[in-house]
Each structure stands twice: as C-alpha cells, then as structure tokens.
Amino acid sequence: MNGPKDPTFSKKNKTLKKLKDQVIVITGASSGIGLVTARMAASKGAKVVAAARNEDALKELVEELRGKGYHATWVKADVGREEDVNNIAETAIKEFGRFDTWVNNAGVSIFGHAMDVTNEDIKRMFETNFWGVVYGTKAAVNHFKDRDVPGALINVGSLFGDRGTVIQSTYAAAKFAVHGWTESIRMELEKEKVPVSVTLIHPGRIDTPYNEHARSYLEKQPAHRGMLYPPKAVAEAILFAAENPKRDMYIGSQAKALKVFGTFLPRLTDKLMEVVMYPTQQANRPSKPREESALYHAGYGLHERGTNIGWKRSCSLYVKATKHPILSTIAVASIGATLWAAAKRKS
C-alpha cells in the first residue's frame, strides 16, 4: 500500500494540493453525496477512485467520467470489510501511484425505535458507518505517513452525530462514534506532528436516496420532510476541505443550530425533537419490505436525489459563508450598519 516518497516534503509545509493535481478516493460513490462528489471532483480535474458495493453503477459512472475526458477508476468494496478497504487504497496506488484525499462517505441508516431494531441489524450498520470509517482512516493515514506528504482525511458525519434523535436512534449512535473517532484521531495526529488535515462533515437533511436505501421498521416509508439541501452542497464542502484544512464543515444552518440548541438547551431540544422528528421522517405511503434495504447488499445506484418531501434548497448559504468567512463577516456587518442607519433616520 506504500507509494513513493515525495522529496519536496517538509514538516512545516502542510499545504494541500489543488484539486486538479489530486487523486481523491470516495467511498459510497455509486449514489447520493458520493456520486455527486465524484462527478464534481472529476469536473475540477481531480483523478477519482470511486468505491462502493454496486459494481454496475460504478462501471457506468467511470465510463461516464472517462467519456468526458476525466481520469477515474472504480473499486467494488464493502467498507465494513477491512480487506476491501485496503484494496481501495491499493487500487488507487496501482492506478495513479498515490492518493491525496480520502473521503469516508459510505453509510446506511435504520429507521425504527432502538428497542425494536435487532442487534444483528445494529451491528451490521456499525460495520458500515463506523468500522468503515476506522478502516478508511487507517488506510489513508498510513499512506500519507509512508509518503511523507500532506494529505486530507474527510469523514462524513451527520447532524445526528452532534445531537441524538428519535426513530434514527441507532444511526445517531453510529454517527456519534464517527464524530468521537474523528476528533480523537485529529488530536493524536497533531500531537505526532503528522501533516494530515482531518475534517468532519456535518450534513443537515440532504435530498439523496439515503431514505430509500435505509432498513425500515416503520409502517410508513422513511423520508425527509421539511427543508432539504442538495447533495451538491455537501460535495462542495467536501471538495473545499480537500484543498483547505478545515476542522468542521456544516451543511445547512439547521445542522449548526441543532448542535448549538442541543448543547445549551438540551431539555428543550429533547422536547422539540420528540414532537418534530416523528412526522418529519416519514412519508404518507407504506414502507418498503426490510429485505429491499441496502443494509446487507448494494442499493440501486446512479441516483443523486431521493424521494423526499419539502422545500428543496438550491444550495447551502452556510457552506458558502464558511468558505468565505471574511467576505461573509463584511456582508453581515454592512447589512447591520445599513439597518442601524435606517432605524436612526426614522427615529
């Protein structure tokens, strides 16, 4: 799994490469966030290593990208299997000589009360959502250490990794584990002075096939209802972090707000979640049979969007503000000054 060492490496130089000069590994690349990220990364000049369980979807994706003149390869992999994850790294090195960014994106959810979900299903979900991140982290960090070059490790968490929820309680537990792992490994690498940028992505409600792929213990089909963000907003955040060291990227003000309210007003947040989350995580149609879920086998691929219901935003202003904090501060200050001046004139 080792690539060639970079003679230009310096412990003081932690600058990440521009996307056009990068090889980027993306797990869960056959649909949703991973699919959009793969397409966007390729369009910006990056060489893409797309990994997922759906081999047919991966082949079609790579053919699509190569047909546009982009560089891409695919790896059929179940991230819950360490040997599969190591094969992703080996394929990237064999095909492109290295990789510069690793995105742990693959994930699956379970909708149902925690006491109803079988332990077998919970363990399987943790294999994908948590152990897949652990295996991917180790493969990526070992590669960056072996090459002695700065690299980016990007783990996709969730707003439910910052604050627990009902119905997706077991999924929230897995994402809490991902958040804890990411924060801990970041500190250890910093203490060792290993030049790896570790970013945690905090998506809000995203309009992807995530709910269709989930295993359901509900009578009604899982679905997001309410304000939704497009998967391209998450891809935008991921690719920004691939070039710019960032600790956290929140997709949507709802993700940041839930963390803040959950931290400072936990009891009130409990009550709000108990009221709001039941009707906003289900559609008004019967739930699909559990065996059709993507928990144990690949779900359908090449769909960026899902069957969710609500206000579908075209972008995340919060992501754009995070990318340009100085301009955003100036804009907010200018708006505030204008409103203050108007109020003063009226008085």
From TrEMBL:
Keyword Ligase belongs to the record: no
PROSITE patterns from the UniProt entry: ADH_SHORT
Oxidoreductase keyword on record: yes
Highest taxon, organism lineage: Bacteria
One Gene Ontology term, aspect cellular component: membrane
Record GO terms (molecular function): oxidoreductase activity
Pfam families recorded: adh_short
Keywords assigned: Oxidoreductase
NCBIfam families hit by this protein: PRK07109.1
Family per record: Belongs to the short-chain dehydrogenases/reductases (SDR) family.
Protein name per Swiss-Prot or TrEMBL: Oxidoreductase
